[in-house]
Design goal:
Strand content: 5-15%
Structural class: alpha/beta
Distance between the termini: 105 Å
Helix content: 40-55%
Shape: elongated
Strand order of the largest sheet: 11-10-12-9-13-14-8-15
CATH architecture of one domain: Up-down Bundle
CATH topology of one domain: Four Helix Bundle (Hemerythrin (Met), subunit A)
Radius of gyration: 48 Å
Number of helices: 48
């Protein structure tokens, strides 16, 4: 009981102390303010000073220094918005880092990484020019954001300043690049510790070094695991068990001391119930914390309980009630004591990093000295000491002056103490942290204290009273708790700016403080703000210095550039204004023309010309062009428009002595050449004078231009005409060649190919924009065009109709040919319908023949199974043959039978056999027909001349068809639709029309423009039969039924602009030196037949890297416009050329543009599949095709062996020959565009192979362009560079394939060598494909594994997030990449793009780019950097 009385004296003592100092509240309030020491003027304070620890300057706002005022103005205006932007950026980075953890990781050999960094530093690839495009104020703000983000990411102050002074600009990305290139791996991995940043900006006033934060500084470099977020104090957290229950302490959280039970050895027998309750409470607490070390104590207490329960006065019911009260009292008092800082905290072991939750918070530790009662120590003064006044200052044993504060509370104050608030704050930040208090050595009678917070992970923060003290221990703990509470409420952000992100609501507890604590809090806050402003001023001063340096350097560079450019220098314009041609008179021209007209050679030719129907309209044409700029001339076949109209214009101009330049465009090379020779002859030129100084006539076709300075009339192909608008071939090398042209004649407007449509589009768009000043006259001519439609297109220009001069032609159809020749077929015939359906499917066949399989084109029209009803004049056998015949095939034997009937057996039609023209779909069919004729005993004799006619043949071979054979010799011409328009073979008397042609169509399924074999239109049929009535009555056999002609053939062919992807034409529009419209869509929408909008958008989207987002053409786009292939395959060819693996690339591109070399005969599917798999290479359909082609090429050295080779391996000889022809065509285009440099002998060899007749001649790619073809990885890299974004992603969990464009699930097509295999077995993340078609499923036809590094370096638009350790390609391909690998890939990709662009422009690579080229090929080719001999050859 005595102890209880002594305890009751404490409130008296505390009340007395409070009363004694109540009168001194006012003066004490003045004393506790920080000492106002005179501040030095603020010169420029470097950031190093700020980092070392800022001295608080309470009157910094009153400094009159102009620089300090200016810096403070910057702080006031910029700090808040900069801080918000920094916080936003940091939050985004944190989100990106979390997302990065889910991505697949991309790795690169460390030796490559080191070498790339060495190259980048040596050749200073990051040093770029920078120009100030905003105001200096905004530039400073941007620089502040860059600085703040870098410091918050953990880069040291010195590193950041070095970076900002080294980079040219002020942006974050540029700073990231510099830091990630120059910082070590240790810095970037977040393991370095920056001591510069451990500043105590939020420490208490007067005690700037009174506490030292032992919380480890956040690493000075970014790490994926930790960011310095603004609202969160820097409290390291250890991994915890998320399933652990929330722990709410009701007693000291540490195990009770071992003498806890032993303190109650003396049992109060007067109250056994109370003692029993206390021991039970102790046992409950020991069992709750499950301390295994106190088992003996628990046993001892249980023994005491047993003894107490046997006491005479023990009552179990009373003991239970007391136990409950005891538990509640102990819990409440313990919690209150812990929060007020009065409970003892024994030293705790560090919480183990295990799944069991560690202890949360220990109650504060009281002073080790016992609390003193005012009556206990008489030697120290007793009551007299109470009456003495506490001094304002005191001196400790070391001579330090200590200020003494009175922190007494009002008598009846009952709010929460600072100790309790601090405990709550710590618990919110880390519920396992421990707060403990300690009393420091006193000064005189004053008391000092310190507080420690031990966070999880053994890190400690400590706040101590060094040069301040209070009246007693309680006040000292109030003071130090308030100090710690303020510090934690305004956490110091290590690095960067100091910004107060604390809201008033978060520190609302200050309002409940007594006046002395509120004043103390205000002092802390004032000191914190002063320190923050001082620090921020120093930072902005440094940033202003950095920006001034950059601006001055930039101004010097601009002066140097202006000095180098010279005064008054101008940049030449790309487009030269159209030059007006003056109507000047030249007497010399007139006299020369009159001399030509007087020649005796001209007179008979002139008489013959006058007999043509067009001659009667000569004057009308000339007069119409004098009054109108455009004339539409619809002339029927044989009227003479193609030869006479250009000559009329030339003669009219020369007769008046007017200088002129006339261009006549033709759809075919042979048309341009033959017309040039014919007009030259009619104007009196010597033989073979075309294109010489002695002639006024010339022509220009691809690879051949015969013009001179004297040329006045030039016949050109439509493709050449378009290219003339691309090149700067006008006067002075600027503008276009059309700037000097006086007349343009567009022949065969009805041939609506893309070149012709594109040229017409240029005429109307360009003419409409310069209509008033346009000098050129335009004549549009055709026999099949819709004249009124074209006239309306050109604003209602005049139309002239000219009749033709032809003889009647007798028309016969398929049923007539079958009836006349008695031709018949059976159900097992290659031309029977059932064979090409499912009749033979699954049935075994003893053998197969390519003749059976090659007649059907998988891309041709669907078969028509309708029964044909013929008239009574046709026999039943004819009806049966017609209904059994598959019209998709070419009936070669029927054609041979017709020729035999006309030339040998039949007298009725023998008069038509002098010259026969056979129309075939393509070169393959021409060759087949030619072989049949040459092998025939009659047609292969000297009595017949057989001429193939195709656009790929040489000009000499094409011109031979115009030769009239000697009497008794008959002529057979086998041609494509090249003989349909544009040229006239005058002696043709009979036409055999297969009814087919090949035209370019955009395949919606395959997403590629391809040559498709299809039926002709009715207008095509009329043109073809018109070829037979030039010199006499003619005969024509159409090998399709009359029913098909009348009901199923289209009236007009669909213009190419409406059926193609338009990629090629889109590129042509962009490279023309004319401003045709605002965009590609705008230009094409004004065409005569506007293409479908979706095709326009598809074309633009497919031009990856050929056009910029602003639709400006790139150097690659210029080259692609000259390659007659799909844009993706064109890119593949260009990249493969640069990578020196051209030969397999040519094969793959040619195979994808033609039919597959693999055939699958019905009934032999398994054998064919096994043969195909024998050529499998690297799980790639593309490489498999190349392997098969290369094997066939080697076997072709032996003519007799190659057919057996093809038969044994189920390969199509004709398809392989077509692939070789396309290879040569692509190679020729690469040579023509000057993208590859070869010697003249190779060009001659290539031309001989391309234009030769007979057996296929191979052209081997020069070794320097094919030195790396054996490296499969390098070839795959070029392939994915071209095919992207045709990519399939492989789900590692499900193994499914999905397109990256629209996330559709895809499967291997049965024709793919990968059919039946699991994509996950390939060991890659992605596959490239070329064809994607949907039937029952979405099938990928041709696929190949792709290297992730190749896609990162060569594909799409790359987004590198260095601070998040991630790389994105078009936001579709995502990878996690380590810091150094990330910057290495970014730098290598930039340099690789640079060298590719230079190669596309035809420029020589510099020494540094050659090194980058070397390392790029090694990485893409997966070459071991440590091997002595490399398999990669670099460009020489």
């Amino acid at each position: 009981m005595a102890k209880k009385k002594k305890t009751q004296l404490k409130p008296v003592s505390r009340g007395f102390a409070t009363t004694s100092v109540a009168k001194k509240v006012e003066p004490v309030e003045e004393e506790i303010r920080p000492e106002e020491t005179p501040a030095d003027p603020e010169p420029r304070i470097g950031p190093a000073d700020a980092d070392a620890g800022l001295q608080v300057n309470s009157n910094a706002s009153g400094v009159e220094d102009a620089k300090a005022i200016a810096l403070q103005a910057i702080v006031d205006s910029n700090q808040d918005k900069v801080a918000k932007e920094i916080n936003r950026t940091i939050n985004l980075i944190e989100q990106d880092r979390r997302f990065t953890q889910t991505l697949p990781e991309l790795e690169l050999d460390q030796s490559f990484v080191d070498y790339i960094a060495q190259l980048a530093i040596e050749y200073k690839v990051l040093e770029n020019k920078w120009s100030l495009d905003v105001s200096q104020e905004k530039a400073l703000t941007r620089l502040g954001i860059t600085y703040g983000v870098l410091r918050r990411l953990g880069f040291s102050e010195s590193r950041v300043e070095e970076c900002l002074r080294s980079i040219a600009g002020i942006g974050l990305e540029e700073a990231y690049d510099w830091l990630y290139l120059h910082c070590s791996e240790q810095e970037l991995s977040g393991t370095s510790y920056d001591k510069e940043s451990s500043d105590g900006l939020t420490s208490a006033p007067q005690t700037p070094s009174s506490w030292t934060s032992q919380t480890p500084s956040t690493p000075r470099t970014p790490s994926s695991a930790q960011l310095l977020l603004p609202q969160t104090p820097t409290i390291p957290m250890s991994p915890l068990n998320p399933n652990a229950p929330v722990f709410t302490p009701s007693f000291p959280v540490s195990p009770p001391p071992k003498d806890l039970g032993r303190t109650s050895d003396v049992i109060d027998v007067e109250d056994p119930n109370s003692e029993h309750a206390k021991i039970r409470a102790q046992l409950f607490e020991l069992e709750r914390i499950k301390s295994g070390k106190d088992a003996s104590l628990i046993n001892e207490l249980q023994i005491k309980l047993k003894k107490l329960s046997q006491h005479y006065f023990f009552d179990a019911r009373d003991a239970e009630a007391l136990y409950r009260v005891e538990r509640e009292n102990i819990s409440a008092s313990t919690l209150r004591a812990r929060l007020q800082g009065l409970a003892e905290v024994p030293s705790l072991p560090s919480p183990p990093l295990v799944d069991n939750p560690p202890v949360k918070v220990a109650t504060p530790q009281p002073s080790t000295q016992p609390e003193r009662d005012i009556f206990d120590d008489a030697d120290e003064g007793g009551l007299l000491e109470i009456l003495d006044e506490m001094p304002a200052t005191a001196t400790d044993s070391q001579g330090t002056t200590v200020k003494i504060y009175d922190m007494s509370f009002p008598k009846h104050w009952s709010g929460r103490t600072p100790e309790k608030l601090l405990a709550e704050k710590v618990s919110k930040l880390d519920k396992y942290a421990v707060v403990s208090y300690s009393d420091l050595a006193g000064v005189s009678r004053a008391k000092r204290a310190s507080v420690k917070v031990r966070w999880v992970g053994q890190t400690v923060d400590e706040w101590s009273m060094v040069d301040v003290a209070c009246y007693d221990d309680v006040q000292a703990r109030h003071y130090v708790a308030t100090m710690a509470l303020h510090s934690l409420s305004h956490p110091s952000k290590e690095g960067g700016f100091v910004v107060d992100n604390v809201t008033a609501a978060s520190v609302s507890f200050v309002r409940s403080f007594p006046a002395c604590l509120r004043d103390l809090w205000d002092e802390f806050e004032e000191a914190r703000k002063a320190a923050a402003n001082s620090h921020n001023r120093n930072v902005w001063d440094m940033l202003q210095s950095v920006l001034d340096t950059k601006i001055n350097s930039n101004e010097l560079d601009e002066k140097e550039n202006r000095r180098g450019l010279g005064a008054g220098a101008t940049i030449p314009s790309r487009v030269k204004p159209r030059r007006e041609v003056q109507d000047t008179f030249s007497e010399q021209l007139m006299l020369e023309f009159q001399a030509r007209q007087a020649s005796s050679v001209i007179i008979p030719i002139q008489e013959q010309r006058n007999t043509l129907p067009i001659a009667a309209h000569r004057q009308h044409i000339i007069e119409t062009l004098d009054s109108s700029q455009v004339l539409v001339l619809s002339g029927e076949t044989g009227c003479g428009k193609s030869t006479q109209v250009p000559a009329f214009l030339l003669e009219d101009q020369l007769s008046q002595g007017k200088p002129c330049r006339i261009f006549c465009t033709e759809p075919r090379r042979i048309s341009a050449i033959s017309l040039a020779h014919r007009v030259s002859q009619e104007l009196g030129d010597p033989p073979n004078a075309v294109g010489t100084l002695a002639s006024l006539i010339g022509y220009s076709i691809r690879l051949e231009s015969n013009t001179t300075r004297n040329t006045r009339l030039t016949f050109v192909t439509n493709g050449i005409a378009l290219r003339m608008l691309e090149d700067g071939s006008g006067s002075g090398g600027q503008g276009t060649a059309f700037d000097d042209i006086t007349h343009i004649v567009v022949d065969e407007v009805g041939v609506r190919d893309a070149h012709n449509c594109g040229f017409l589009n240029v005429l109307i768009v360009y003419g409409s924009e310069t209509w008033l000043t346009l000098v050129s006259r335009v004549i549009l001519m055709s026999a099949t065009m819709e004249a009124d439609k074209v006239s309306a297109y050109f604003d209602g220009c005049p139309v002239l109709q000219v009749p033709g001069r032809t003889y009647p032609v007798e028309v016969r159809y398929l049923e007539d040919a079958v009836e006349w020749t008695k031709w018949h077929i059976t159900e097992d015939s290659p031309h029977a319908r059932r064979l090409n359906d499912n009749f033979y499917k699954g049935k075994a066949r003893a053998d197969w023949s390519e003749d059976i399989t090659e007649g059907i084109d998988n891309d041709s029209d669907d078969p028509d199974n309708e029964k044909v009803q013929l008239g009574k004049r046709y026999s039943a056998k004819t009806t049966k043959a017609i209904n059994l015949f598959d019209e998709r095939t070419i009936p070669y034997d029927l054609i041979m039978r017709l020729l035999e009937q006309m030339c040998t057996d039949g007298e009725e039609y023998s008069r038509y056999s002098a010259a026969v023209l056979i129309f075939m779909p393509g070169l393959r069919e021409i060759r087949r027909m030619n072989d049949l004729l040459m092998e025939h005993q009659y047609f292969g004799s000297s009595n017949f001349c057989v001429y193939p006619l195709h656009s790929t043949l040489s000009s000499e071979n094409q011109s031979a068809v115009f030769d009239i054979p000697p009497p008794g010799i008959r002529k057979i011409v086998i041609a494509t639709n090249i003989a349909e328009t544009g040229i006239t073979i005058p002696d043709i008397t009979c036409v055999i029309d297969s009814g087919k042609h090949r035209e370019m169509r955009f395949d919606e399924k395959r997403q590629i423009s391809r040559l498709i074999e299809t039926f002709i239109a009715r207008s095509n049929a009329a043109q073809r039969r018109g070829r037979a009535g030039r010199v006499q009555d003619g005969l024509c056999f159409h090998l399709f039924t009359k029913s098909r002609h009348d009901t199923k053939l289209a009236p007009q062919p669909l213009p190419e602009m409406m059926r193609l992807s338009l990629s090629d034409l889109a590129l042509r529009i962009k490279i023309m030196k004319l401003q045709l419209g605002k965009s590609i869509d705008d230009v094409l929408s004004r065409a005569l037949d506007p293409p479908v909008a979706i095709n326009v958008q598809r074309a633009i989207s497919s031009l990856v890297k050929a056009l910029t987002p602003q639709e400006d053409i790139t150097p690659m786009g210029v080259l692609l416009s000259k390659l007659p292939t799909d844009v993706h395959l064109g890119k593949f060819l260009l990249v493969a050329t640069i990578f020196r693996c051209l030969d397999p690339a040519l094969t793959i591109a040619a195979a994808l543009n033609s039919k597959s070399p693999f055939v699958t005969p019905f009934g032999l599917e398994q054998e064919a599949d096994r043969a195909k798999h024998s050529f499998r290479t690297e799980n790639s359909d593309f490489l498999t095709v190349h392997n098969a082609f290369a094997s066939w090429r080697r076997a072709s050295d032996n003519g007799s062996f190659v057919r057996n080779f093809c038969k044994r391996n189920y390969l199509s000889q004709q398809n392989l020959q077509q692939i070789e022809e396309l290879r040569q065509q692509f190679l020729g285009y690469l040579v023509d565009s000057r993208f590859i440099q070869v010697d003249a002998s190779f060009v001659r060899e290539l031309n001989r192979a391309r234009y030769s007749r007979g057996r296929t001649r191979f052209v081997m790619v020069p070794h320097d362009l094919d030195s790396n073809s054996s490296n499969v990885d390098l070839l795959n890299a070029a392939l994915v560079a071209g095919l992207y974004p045709k990519i399939l992603s492989i789900d590692s969990q499900t193994g499914q394939m999905r397109t990256i464009l629209n996330n559709q699930q895809a499967s291997f097509h049965p024709s793919s060598i990968n059919f039946g295999r699991k994509p996950a077995d390939f060991g890659v993340n992605y596959l490239a494909y070329f064809t994607l078609m949907r039937s029952k499923k979405l099938y990928a036809w041709e696929t190949s594994p792709v290297n992730d590094i190749a896609m990162v370096l060569l594909c799409g638009e790359m987004e590198t997030k260095l601070v998040a350790d991630s790389v994105f390609i078009d936001r579709k391909l995502r990878y996690k990449v380590s810091p150094k690998v990330n910057i290495a890939l970014k730098l290598l990709r930039a340099q690789l793009a640079n060298l590719l662009a230079k190669q596309y422009r035809g420029k020589v690579l510099t020494e540094s780019l050659m090194l980058w080229y070397d390392i790029a090929l090694m990485i893409l080719g997966k070459v071991n950097p440590n091997q002595e001999e490399r398999s990669i050859q670099v460009a020489g």
